[in-house]
Amino acid sequence: MTAFRKLFPANLRFDWKIVTLTVVSTLLLLVDYYYTLTPWKALDRTILYLFIPLAITMLVFRESPREYGFGLGDWRAGLTLTVLGILFMAPILWLLGRGDANIQGYYAHQLDGLPWTTFLDLFGWEYIFRGWLLFGYARKFGPEALWLQAVPFALSHAGKPGVETFSTIFGGFAFGWVAWRTRSFLYPFLIHWFVSTFTILVAAGILG
């Protein structure tokens, strides 16, 4: 019995919501990578990253999605940060999209359905990171949640152009800070939607 207690100390207790957030978000990312649920990848991601977390929030956690950043939040600050983020990112994206062959090769063929394909693809994507994980982790870890949610976000970019993937740990933090400041995932979503759509258009030579 003593040996058993040493292996499994009584003070090893877990916050069940943190466990749920971590396990479910990891499994959803893996399902997205390995499986196709519908003929449209953007719809798959809406189901996985928006509908499932919202269902767990309301039916399992018994909480309002607003507690996880699903709302307008501080919309004045949000709109200001969105405009500033777009103005800051546009010239960087234009230079990379015109000068990096890897970015051109990866994104130039993704024109079909713009801008709604990127809208659907990123709405749930931003919610799970800058809504569900960020505000869920923040309850226990405070501001450290900004970095914690950025880690799976960065790893989920593996396979994309290197310059993009290596930057995502910092980009994920920045998106998280916007959500933290505004109490809403909507504003990092708007910035990310612009980033993705603008990158594709530049890479394809539409804006260049």
Structure description:
The chain starts with a helix and ends in a 5-residue tail after the last helix. The protein has helices at residues 2-7, 16-34, 41-60, 75-99, 101-107, 116-141, 145-155, 162-182, 186-203. The chain has one domain (16-203). It is mostly helical. It is globular and about 60 Å long. It contains nine helices and no strands.
In brief, what are we looking at here?
It contains 9 helices and no strands. With 208 residues, it is mainly α. The protein starts with a helix and ends in a 5-residue tail after the last helix.
Please outline the major beta sheet: none
Distance between the termini: 71 Å
* Fraction of helical residues: over 70%
Q: What's the alpha carbon Rg, rounded to whole Å?
A: 19 Å
String of helices and strands: HHHHHHHHH
Structural class: mainly alpha
In terms of per-residue confidence, which ranges show pLDDT below 50 for 5 or more consecutive residues? none
State the domain count. 1
SS summary, helix count: 9
Mean pLDDT: 93
DSSP E strands, number = 0
Shape: globular
Strand fraction equals under 5%
